[in-house]
Structure of LemA family protein:
Amino acid sequence: MLWILLIIIVALLLYIVVLYNKLVGLRLRVKNAWAQIEVQLKRRHDLIPNLVNAVKGYMKYEQDTLTKVIEARAKAVSATAVPDIAKAEGELSGLLSKLFALFENYPELKANQNVMALQEELTTTENQISFSRQHYNDSVMVYNMALQMFPSNIIASTFNFKEEDKFFEAPEAEKEVPKVDLSL
């Protein structure tokens, strides 16, 4: 009888260790996903001044837009909390979209290989940021679910695991439905 009790206790302890390790792994996965977003944002922040410098001479009448892009970049670089970063990056995304739309008014920009290469790099980086945000949100969701589901919620509360409430949402500018006018 004592052996059975000892086996049950050992099995229970092993189960607790497995659940604890699973929660630690999920928490680290969330941190890694956030780090991947930061890598892509750093890349974006490094590309923006190059793009602005490349187009500055061509876009003499758009200095206000260029200034706003640089200011939004500075705000995004200095943000530290996830909600502040998300807000600042959303504003920066909106301004970059506006800047790219203005390129259409400048045929010489569309012909400039440096500008086109920088625009392509920035577009690729935007896509990678989008993918990284999705991965981060998925990681947060899986981690938070594990913290709430029985029996891992008992282990989570015992060892003081905290939920991540930092989902990275789409900026307001990206939530708007684009207007398409096909009339001739």
